[in-house]
Amino acid sequence: MSTILAIEDLQVHFTVRRGGQRLVARAVDGVDLEIAPSETLGLVGESGSGKSTTGRAVLRLVDITAGSIRFGGVELDRRRRRVPSDYRKRVQVVFQDPYSSLNPRMTVGSAVADPARRHLGLSKADSMQRARELFDVVGLDTRHVDRLPHEFSGGQRQRIAIARALSSEPELIVCDEAVSALDVSTQAQVLNLLRDLRVQTGVAYLFIAHDLDVVRHVSDRISVMYLGRIVETGPAEAVATAPRHPYTELLHDAIPLPDPAAQAERRTARRQLRSSADPPSPLAPPTGCSYHPRCPFAMDICRQEAPTPTPVDTATGAWVRCHLHTHGPVLAGAPVAELIGWRRDTPAGDTARGARPTG
Q1: pLDDT tens per residue across span 136-194
Q2: What Å distances lie between residue 110 and 60, 94, 336, CA to CA?
Q3: Element housing 25 (H / E)
Q4: Do the beta carbons of residue 219 and residue 40 sit within 8 Å?
């Protein structure tokens, strides 16, 4: 697979002070990702998983501790503070809050025209004409280019942010929680817009969000992140509907269903996946598998050794980082839902075969 973005062993650590001591927070701790041209890769995880820090590292908004980021076959120098202008042109961003990312004193037309003037060398008149064209592309009235951001709704402001990101004709857009602040109907509109724009322009997306269902509807592939590491990667539909990692299954079971009977069954499954343990801190990550303090299927080896990626579908390149697929009683590449059903039918079997709940 040809790639436009390749991340290898990315690490981003922050130094913090606690009680007079200097501690290291491993926000991103060895991440590998690849994005092909015109592909959408969804990066999903709960708050504190490191997904937004990964996106900011790609944007060069935070310093990289170790690892490499290659874009268009060229490795970025992580020691170089000043990012080349060409990289800013080719990689753009849509942030979570479009109001705070737009200058409240600048008209929205100027905000959209500015990247075209800076990176494409267009004149002021031509860049404003491009802004009007992009307003039309994202479904906004071109007559409103002279308005200020506060005169638009949240969904309209996010469309303006998308138009601004497209202004420099980028090859990759990082969408960092781009729809999480919007209501459900507006979310759907923006997600459909992003998909349509990908078809029209060929742009690739790194789509970062905490909602697995939202990520599923916009992505080709999904990578699930927990405590600074990728724990599962595969085709979007497979990861979202048949998770192979217990953490991904927990995210899956958090998606509400309209059918009361199906929702009740999902709540039952979620209770089996819950743990009383608090999420570990990146300041003191657990030994072995980082998820074992919260995993109801944790085995002795989970507490001792960190799992390595295990291929589960060679045709699609899907893999999971979990000992249950190599040392567990049932899985060996199967979805975690099968283990939940097996435990329900054989309540004592998990202890007999070595899968001991932790909580």
Answers
A1: 999 999 999 999 999 999 889 999 999 999 999 999 999 999 888 788 888 899 999 99
A2: 24, 17, 50
A3: strand 21-35
A4: yes
Is 99 within 8 Å of 155 (Cβ atoms)? no
Secondary structure class of 247 (helix, strand, coil): helix
**Residue 307 has which token pair?**
């799992």
Say what the pTM is: 0.88
Nearest to 60 by CA among 49, 46, 76: 76
Topology at the third CATH level for domain 5-100+169-236: Rossmann fold (3.40.50)
Whole-angstrom Cα distance, residue 355 to residue 243?
Answer: 19
| Backbone angle region of 20, left / alpha / beta, with phi > 0 → left and psi within -120 to 50 → alpha | left
In the chain, CATH 3.40.50.300 sits at: 5-100+169-236
Contact 207, 219 (CB under 8 A): yes
Q: Could you give the 3-state DSSP secondary structure of residue 257?
A: coil
Q: Any bridge partners for residue 29, and if so which?
A: 11
User: Residue 308: exposed, middle, or buried by beta-carbon count in 10 A (0-12, 13-18, 19+)?
Assistant: exposed
- Looking at residue 4, what DSSP letter applies? S
Residue whose token pair is 């039918």: 345
